[in-house]
Amino acid sequence: MSTTASAPNADLAASTRPRSLTPRDLITVGVFTALYFVIGFAFGFVGVLGPVAQAVGMIVSAAVNGIVFSLYITRIRKPGMVLLTGLIAALLMVLTGHAWTTLVAAVVFSGIAELILARGHYRSARAAILAYAFFTLWVIGPIVPMYYQRDAYLADIAEQMGDAYAAAWETVFSPGPFAAILAVIFVSACLGGLLGQKMLRKHFIRAGIA
Amino acid sequence: MQLLARSRATGRLRLDPRTKLLLVCVINVAALTRVDLLASLMAFVCVAVLLASAGAWRMLGGLAGLFVACRVVRLLASEVFEGAIWYTLGAVGFFIGNYLPAVAIGAYIVRTTTPSELIEALRRLRAPEALVIPMSVMLRFFPTLAEEMTAVVQAARLRRLHSGRWGILREPVQAIEHIMVPLLVSSTRIGDELAASALTRGLGGSRRRTSIVQLDFGAGDVLGLAMAVLIMGVFIGRLIG
User: Fold this and answer.
1) A164 near B CB under 8 A
2) Contact across the interface for A27 and B1, Cβ inside 8 Å
3) A-chain residue closest to B204, CA distance
4) Residue among B228, B225, B219 nearest B12 (CA)
5) Which of B107, B118, B194 is closest, CB to CB, to A97?
6) What would the pLDDT profile of A82-117 be if each residue is shown by its tens digit?
7) Which of A17, A37, B89, B225 is in the most buried spot, having the most CB atoms within 10 Å?
8) Taking CB atoms and an 8 Å cut-off, how many pairs form between chains A and B?
């Protein structure tokens, strides 16, 4: 299943195009990262209410941004585009008051996405969906400090309350819920990616912009 | 939606954006790496001074109030009261309080830095063009995108799509389609025009571009650097000690 209506000379065009990002591509990266951000903003994953209140927003925007991302991949199809998007989005997040771990998460997950896209030669719809799902996991970056600061808190209350109480907290702040959030976001992003591919075929390829 | 400031900061204390970048790094690491109440407090006080110098009194009041409240709740929960409710409150206060210094420096940057300043700072810091070009496009594209989004939503309203109280919730996927498709088509077109215009004016050329923004280190930056050294000193000192 291919994402593009393959033109007869598409291979020729692909072989003559430069493999690195041109200034025009870099502008496209900027435009789509801005789109990605505005959609995220509209659904509240870049809120200021702290990370906990953002869980729902994260899940919804993961689905909606699947449409943005599906179109984005067809506009460049070169290595480095997703990594740049992750880097720039995370830089902006850190500048506006999110934790530095956001940057680390962005590099890791957009790196994974790059590998998946490269395996599909930037042409496979399945790779695009999977890459988007992995890329989306970077949004947990801002929450990471809560998980390694947990020990400090547990130590804090164990002193007061004894180990039984700390053990109860241990279950609340355990990696379990964290993994659950990740799984839900991942599934939501997969659905968003599917929706995005559908929109590509239904609208964007016809409109001649994919 | 303009994410950063519209005009350059006024006021007595003007920091070079490079100093602000350094402060973000230092404060973020000091506040969100390990729990260190003293370093976190120092960081918050430093940012409070900066916010005050920028005249962001309401923002400062809100953040300071929240910070104090978090610390007090945490103290009460760990020293005075007992019971599940207090422990939950204590946990919330504990985690939000840890994030606040980073949130505060973010608020200061958003309030006092223009996109042009930030971009010029990144250029002077020898950031690669592959990072600087998309970053500057993104920052300048936000207002346009917000306009487009408003226009698309208004068009949908005008055609009575998804009206009524539960309009969007009744057919969520369709509602998203009716908003996202026009938005993406129009922003892609605008992006193409933007690219054509920027390339015509020599973007991506080999010459070094000049900027209308003048950056230089001044008295404010001495203070900013002192703050960075102080916060890092406390943080590392407590890490070792």
Assistant:
1) no
2) no
3) A23
4) B219
5) B107
6) 999 999 999 999 998 899 999 999 999 999 999 999
7) A37
8) 175
Residue A195 has pLDDT above 90, yes or no: yes
* CA distance linking residue B62 with residue B94, whole number of Å: 17
Per-residue tokens: B70:
């978090």
Read off the amino acid at residue B151. Answer: A
Contacts of A96 (CB under 8 A, 6+ apart): A46, B3, B106, B109, B110
pLDDT tens digits for range B34-82: 888 899 999 999 999 999 999 899 999 999 999 999 999 988 877 777 7
All residues at 6 or more sequence positions from A126 whose CB lies less than 8 Å from its CB, including other chains? A1, A120
Dist CA B79 CA B87 (whole Å)? 11
- Other Cβ atoms within 10 Å of B40 Cβ, number: 25
User: pLDDT for A5-42, tens place per residue?
Assistant: 444 444 444 555 668 899 999 999 999 999 999 998 78
Residue B1 amino acid letter = M
Tokens read off for B225: 């650097």
B185 touches chain A (CB under 8 A): yes
d(C-alpha B184, C-alpha B157), whole Å: 18
**pLDDT in the model for residue A6:** 43
